[in-house]
Amino acid sequence: MKAVVIGSTGYGGVELIRLLQGHPNAEIGAMVSSSSAGKPLGEVYPHAAHLTFTLEEMDVDGIAEAGEVIFFATPPGVSGKWAAAFLERGKIVIDLSGDFRLGNPDIYQQWYQREPAPVEWMERAVYGLSEWYKEQVAEATLIANPGCYPTATLLAVLPLLKEGLIQTSPLVVDAKSGVSGAGRGLSESKLYCEVNENLYPYKIGVHQHTPELERFAAAESGEPVKILFTPHLVPMNRGILANIYAQANPGVTGQDVADCYRSYYENAPFVRLKPEGEWPQTKHVRGSNFCDLGWHVDERTGIVTAVAAIDNLMKGAAGQAVQNLNLRMGWPETAGLEGLPLYP
Ligand SMILES: NC(=O)C1=CN([C@@H]2O[C@H](COP(=O)(O)OP(=O)(O)OC[C@H]3O[C@@H](n4cnc5c(N)ncnc54)[C@H](OP(=O)(O)O)[C@@H]3O)[C@@H](O)[C@H]2O)C=CC1
Ligand SMILES: CC(=O)N[C@@H](CCC(=O)OP(=O)(O)O)C(=O)O
């Protein structure tokens, strides 16, 4: 099965290329770049110099001919404009951007401040949080791969919300991301001297992942959920650590939370539950598709703290996109994703 990567010169795109290169069932049909078409991939990414691919231009017919599955690893606004052309040609589209996650053009416009994708495709898209929407992903033609912060956060909170172990509002998400989460594009805020030896929050109250978090938290809890989300940038390349704080419902114990997580994730190959008293670390998941989860129910305050660690480029983007490809094609869920995390 051949796959095309649009946006192959970005961090999400080149991570997809790495995974597809090592995948037992898939191969790369074409790598597309709007800015570097005609150049060998190795000119943009010397670490991939041995791959003899030339980057191709954004030509719908050519791309549709080159693969059955089209990955968009492009900034918001690109797949919203182009995905329909591939869907109409019978292709499967897996979109790493936020263009199809929200199911509602008005909400998209409000949070992304961009022209939304066609509403009929927005409504038909399946949200690719693999552990939660497996059956839907297996049938989908358009898969909206989740955002990096929502992947970590939702994996941690959905079991607790669904089983009524925590109150729905307020739910506080305090999360930290490595700099690759912001993509490869040049910007002053990502310069070495700006990010190194520094730690700072950004987009408090206005981050575009807020409606995505609230949409799927509400869908699983059965009632509206309000989320207070504070992302931070930390001086590392990869990784997200999300701490989630919520009021436990009366009588809920640490054992209840442990049993709840075990019942949801005992057969989930990429979710690893930490033993009591141990906590997830970004280093333990780096370069892998794992999400590590830890938790604590504080008897003094009645607050549940859930902690999730993922690699933003893997479970938060390209890794989960390949997991969704596997589910969609009926291949083993872990195909091409079996590698150990990179350590140290
Ligand atoms: N980085 C991360 O951790 C995560 C990213 N995402 C999402 O995945 C998507 C890709 O992110 P990321 O790889 O980090 O971003 P990058 O900025 O690193 O790469 C995006 C790529 O898209 C291509 N591109 C830009 N504009 C256009 C255009 N108008 N038409 C076609 N292609 C275009 C560019 O390649 P070229 O100029 O060669 O075409 C660029 O390399 C984004 O939507 C992002 O929000 C989601 C989860 C996590
Ligand atoms: C560190 C950092 O800047 N991260 C990015 C994540 C971007 C992203 O994944 O955006 P979409 O999922 O909406 O496409 C951010 O916070 O905006």
TrEMBL record:
Domain Semialdehyde dehydrogenase NAD-binding, residue spans: 2-140
Stated role: Catalyzes the NADPH-dependent reduction of N-acetyl-5-glutamyl phosphate to yield N-acetyl-L-glutamate 5-semialdehyde.
Gene name per UniProt: argC
Family matches, as Pfam families: Semialdhyde_dh, Semialdhyde_dhC_1
SMART domains referenced in this protein's UniProt entry, alphabetically: Semialdhyde_dh (SM00859)
PROSITE patterns in UniProt: ARGC
Annotated NCBIfam families: argC
Catalytic activity: N-acetyl-L-glutamate 5-semialdehyde + phosphate + NADP(+) = N-acetyl-L-glutamyl 5-phosphate + NADPH + H(+)
Similarity comment text for this entry: Belongs to the NAGSA dehydrogenase family. Type 1 subfamily.
Compartments reported by the entry: Cytoplasm
EC number: 1.2.1.38
InterPro entries: AGPR, AGPR_AS, AGPR_dimerisation_dom, AGPR_type-1, NAD(P)-bd_dom_sf, Semialdehyde_DH_NAD-bd
EC supergroup of this enzyme: oxidoreductase
The entry's keywords: Amino-acid biosynthesis, Arginine biosynthesis, Cytoplasm, NADP, Oxidoreductase
Pathway: Amino-acid biosynthesis; L-arginine biosynthesis; N(2)-acetyl-L-ornithine from L-glutamate: step 3/4
Active site: 148
GO MF entry, a single one: N-acetyl-gamma-glutamyl-phosphate reductase activity
PANTHER family in UniProt: N-ACETYL-GAMMA-GLUTAMYL-PHOSPHATE REDUCTASE, CHLOROPLASTIC-RELATED, N-ACETYL-GAMMA-GLUTAMYL-PHOSPHATE REDUCTASE, CHLOROPLASTIC-RELATED-RELATED
Protein name: N-acetyl-gamma-glutamyl-phosphate reductase
